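Subject: Predicted fold for RHL protein, 404 residues

User T.R. writes:
Posting the sequence so we have a shared reference for the thread.
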Amino acid sequence: MSSNYLNFRNSVPWVILLLEALFLIRSYFLLLRLDGLDLLQSSYPEFQDVNHMVIFGFGFFLMVLRRYGFSSTGFNLLIIVLGVQCAVLVEDLLRVIFSFSFFSCSIAKALISMTAVAISTGAVLGKTNLVQLIVMTIVELIVFYVSRWINRRYLEVGDHLSLMHVHLFGAYFGLAVTSCFPEPSPRLDKNRSTPKSDLFSMLGSVFLWVFWPSFNSLLAQSRRKAVLNTYFALAVSAVTAFMLSALTSKDGKFRMTHIHSAALAGGVTVSFTAQMISHPWIAMILGLLGSAITILGSHCLQRCLNPPLKIHDTSGVHFTFGLPAVLGALAQVVLLVIREWTNSSSLGYLVLLHVGAFCQTISLALLTGFITGFILNTRLLKIIPVSKYFEDQFYWEVSLNVKL
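User M.O. replies:
I've generated the structure tokens; pasting them so everyone works from the same file.
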């Protein structure tokens, strides 16, 4: 057994114990005012849906690699439960130390914020050890809350809308981090899926698809409108995924990777506009466009953009979450212009604020993602060799009788 593995095994329990000690100290000494408690009581079914979505949905969604199933589901569970506690701690500190009155402690908001981390994890899946994932989670949560504060304080973005930047932030933060890791060899046999792993990953997509209306409506002011628009967008994106998958395949057969990614595009695309769309046909068009940009983007990015930039996006989070989020942000600006067309005096100012929030979110995600990737590649965090990428046996007890 290598010394690197022994060091990793000995460091993980102490890192987790230190974090839990900090969370317990926070609970004892800081005055935790759960301002979101009434919200949680009034919308517990939606909160439960989002909890299922993050734990079950992303846990199975990330099972795309043939020999990394234990790590995909197990690490996701640990990262989520640690991250939610960390998010509440970050909200406490920002409000108490820096008087960020915009933030109120809410488990629901913390859970939604963890979606950014789950998306980023998909980009670096199989290339990071657990200590690196924990460090990435803490850094990303802190930076995401800072990004939300900038959007709310200086760009006057609403609380719900600032949270819906999780897809945009998580995708581009993860891409920046994964660009700092060595690329795996194209001949590496472990870097591929099997029918079984594709099936489990599709199960995760189904979980995410079913619960996505609750995700978009949990903190929305007009929940009924958000649920209806999200469902219609998801329905059209799923239908479009099947149609475009057959059209873009040489033999006219469906490809599971297309359905797995594009079926969710509608929910991501309308996340910014779900509560402001007055007519369902607008949400349906956005769902169609989101699905199309996902499937077409997967071909273009993997063949044209990723090789020269040396970006290895394990789970395809760029075209699954990043591109639909960009489309949704642009759609929000267009719908804002249409709605405020008669109020020409303030229209330019409002457009400038929303475009500024969009650019600020991506810029901060990319910048801090590169810095985080550099930190994760230091010797202190026990870098795993490229030959050990996408390998459960490096972390878990795996029966020798189990065929991986």
